[in-house]
């Protein structure tokens, strides 16, 4: 920008960007030159109304500017026409028509800022700058005549190059038979949808609409092994119109990921069946969010999908067999962008699908999306991200270095290997507290507001029914049994308590704890505790390997990702030894971070480049090949851990003394466990 003394100083708020411009410069042009991205679909014809700004009036001493309405051009015919037809607030101007006539302070309203703050689900209020791969371009095409025998499509291409500087434009073949009818329906005024995933890529015409089309949509989808979650968003405003989820129908082929790989191995048609099932579920979910958002699915022009490696492969129609054994080879690890119709996704015929890259054989695009969302690679602090599932995905790092691994936790945390376990659903126990003196439990059930010892619970539970214990409840009851002295740090139920308390009952050579006495009777068995120990030890050992690689003894911050992680109480996760010691104030559930990362990639193509670059730099650790894994695993079988200290946890919870500090005793009948006086405030 070549400034002169005669140029006028213009300040844009709230960005704070400023510059000098000659008299007569359009406000929109000034904004674009400074990088203040004000939306404009109509190409400056004052028909879309998205480029509205507000002129601030007064003396702004801090900036050395005196601003007022006299420093901007009066409303011209285009603005007056828009105001008359569509309405325009008294304090607003269309920046494509208004020109600079003096020094100005311009306020860009939040509803017109491309990088306006987007509030995501679960109260996540981070800013997502919008720079989608799809751009809507309004043009007026020159009508054909006898003297200019240029084809209608060619006339459209000329208009797009003239008004939007789109050179080297390619066209989707599906549009060719429709161009003429669309142009005539719109009376030679149309809106072209241009797809450009990369700044340096050739622009591609993927859809054309008659007249002014002032909106376009996209979907972001997280394909989990248990649940598929989807968000419908406006590509122009970033607003989320609808969110929904459904069970992954592949569950009927296998509860966990490896069982689905086995199904493919043993059934020639297995891959096709699972691919068809997940695509049908996704198409059904698209219909659901479109109905909620009150839009036509033909208006969806872009989509982003993430999932673990096996879900990633099955969604794309790739045989996942190689992921079933070492070296766990991916057929495709990098990001991929292709027409949605090529993989059977029912959107606009020109819609595209982008899939984030996979990190490693069992650390997938979902972990990449979580990394993008939570951004350990942008931080100074050493951040640990844990996505707990049948196969836990772990990322640890900061701006200087990130490492990742997977850990085979199995389905215990989802209730599959627990005698009274179940998935989270109404009727499942999700919170548990045990009195350390009486060993009496109280619990909270999904679908019932009261705790089991509060008035109204009995009536509510009779109507709903109490059917089992879900993942968060399983973690809490084992941790509470340890804190109450029912189990030792080695996870053994103290049989000597059976003589003193009816909650402790013998089952063969081992003992169980009765959580609920009435039908259905719910007990925690020694085998249940062992299954939890094995799962948590596998996860903790994987985390310790990553900490070893980073050369650290403690992490600064921990994020629990996924639906399951959202309901885990950090304190009990630490008591159990699921995660390493950390300041509890810095242990947070980050919700569906994979879905959030997918939305970031949907709304801003630069985020796609960011995660592609980050994944290339993440170091992959294969736990099965690490000699120290077994050593860490054995130590992690204890509660919370045989060797590692938990000073942060000990500052908020009174942990039982370690067995090394206790007298020897017979597990099944010797000296009783150490008792603690007093109650904990635990609600």
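Q: What amino acid sequence fits the structure above?
A:
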């Amino acid at each position: 920008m070549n400034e002169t003394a005669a140029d006028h100083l213009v300040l844009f708020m709230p960005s704070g960007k400023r510059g000098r411009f000659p008299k007569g410069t359009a406000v929109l042009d000034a904004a674009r030159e400074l990088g203040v991205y004000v939306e404009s679909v109509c190409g400056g014809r004052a028909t879309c109304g998205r480029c509205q700004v507000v002129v601030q009036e007064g003396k702004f001493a801090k900036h050395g500017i005196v601003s007022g309405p006299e420093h901007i051009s009066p409303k011209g015919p285009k603005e007056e026409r828009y105001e008359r037809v569509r309405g325009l607030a008294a304090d607003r101007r269309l920046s494509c028509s208004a020109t600079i006539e003096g020094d100005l302070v311009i306020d860009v309203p939040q509803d017109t800022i491309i990088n306006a703050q987007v509030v995501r689900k679960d109260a996540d209020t981070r800013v997502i700058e919008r720079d989608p791969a799809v751009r809507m371009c309004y043009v007026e095409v020159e009508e054909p005549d006898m003297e200019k025998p240029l084809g209608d499509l060619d006339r459209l291409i000329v208009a797009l190059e003239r008004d939007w500087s789109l050179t080297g434009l390619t066209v989707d073949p599906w549009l060719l038979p429709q161009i003429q009818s669309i142009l005539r329906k719109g009376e030679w005024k149309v809106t072209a949808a241009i797809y450009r995933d990369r700044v340096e890529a050739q622009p591609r015409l993927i859809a054309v609409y008659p007249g002014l089309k002032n909106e376009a949509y996209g979907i972001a989808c997280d394909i989990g092994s248990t649940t598929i979650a989807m968000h419908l968003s406006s590509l122009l405003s970033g607003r989320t119109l609808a969110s929904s989820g459904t069970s992954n129908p592949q569950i009927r082929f296998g509860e966990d990921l490896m069982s689905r790989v086995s199904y493919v191995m043993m059934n020639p048609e297995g891959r096709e069946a699972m691919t068809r099932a997940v695509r049908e579920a996704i198409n059904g979910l698209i219909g659901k969010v479109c109905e909620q958002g009150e839009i036509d699915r033909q208006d969806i022009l872009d989509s982003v999908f993430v999932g673990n490696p096996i879900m990633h492969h099955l969604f794309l129609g790739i045989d996942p067999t190689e992921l079933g054994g070492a070296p766990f080879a991916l057929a495709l690890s990098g990001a991929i962008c292709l027409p949605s119709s090529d993989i059977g996704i029912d959107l606009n015929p020109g819609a595209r699908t982008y899939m984030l890259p996979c990190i490693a054989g069992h650390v997938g695009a979902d972990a990449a999306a979580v990394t993008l969302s939570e951004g350990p690679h942008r931080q100074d602090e050493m951040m640990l991200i844990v996505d707990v599932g049948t196969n836990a995905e772990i990322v640890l790092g900061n701006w200087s270095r990130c490492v990742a691994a997977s850990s085979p936790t199995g389905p215990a945390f989802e209730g599959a290997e627990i005698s009274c376990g179940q998935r989270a659903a109404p009727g499942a126990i999700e919170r548990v507290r045990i009195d350390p003196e009486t060993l009496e439990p109280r619990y909270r059930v999904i679908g019932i507001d009261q705790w089991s010892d509060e008035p109204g619970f009995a009536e509510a539970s009779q109507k709903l029914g109490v059917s089992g214990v879900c993942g968060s409840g399983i973690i809490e009851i084992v941790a509470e049994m340890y804190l109450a002295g029912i189990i030792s740090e080695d996870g053994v139920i103290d049989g000597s308590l059976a003589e003193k308390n009816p909650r402790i009952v013998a089952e063969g050579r081992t003992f169980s704890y009765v959580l609920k006495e009435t039908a259905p009777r719910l007990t925690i068995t020694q085998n249940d505790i062992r299954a939890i120990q094995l799962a948590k030890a596998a996860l903790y050992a994987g985390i310790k390997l990553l900490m070893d690689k980073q050369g650290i003894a403690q992490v600064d911050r921990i994020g629990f990702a996924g639906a399951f992680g959202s309901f885990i109480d950090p304190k009990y996760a630490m008591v159990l030894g699921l995660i390493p010691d950390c300041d509890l104030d810095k242990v947070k559930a980050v919700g569906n971070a994979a879905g959030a990362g997918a939305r970031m990639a949907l709304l801003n193509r630069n985020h796609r480049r960011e995660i592609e670059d980050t994944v290339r730099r993440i170091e992959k650790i294969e736990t099965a090949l690490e000699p120290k894994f077994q050593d860490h695993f054995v130590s992690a079988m204890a509660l919370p851990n045989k060797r590692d200290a938990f000073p942060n946890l000990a500052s908020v919870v009174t942990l039982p003394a370690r067995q090394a500090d206790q007298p020897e005793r017979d597990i099944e009948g010797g000296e009783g466990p150490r008792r603690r006086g007093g109650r904990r405030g635990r609600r």
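Q: And what stands out in the fold?
A: The first helix runs from residue 27 to 34.
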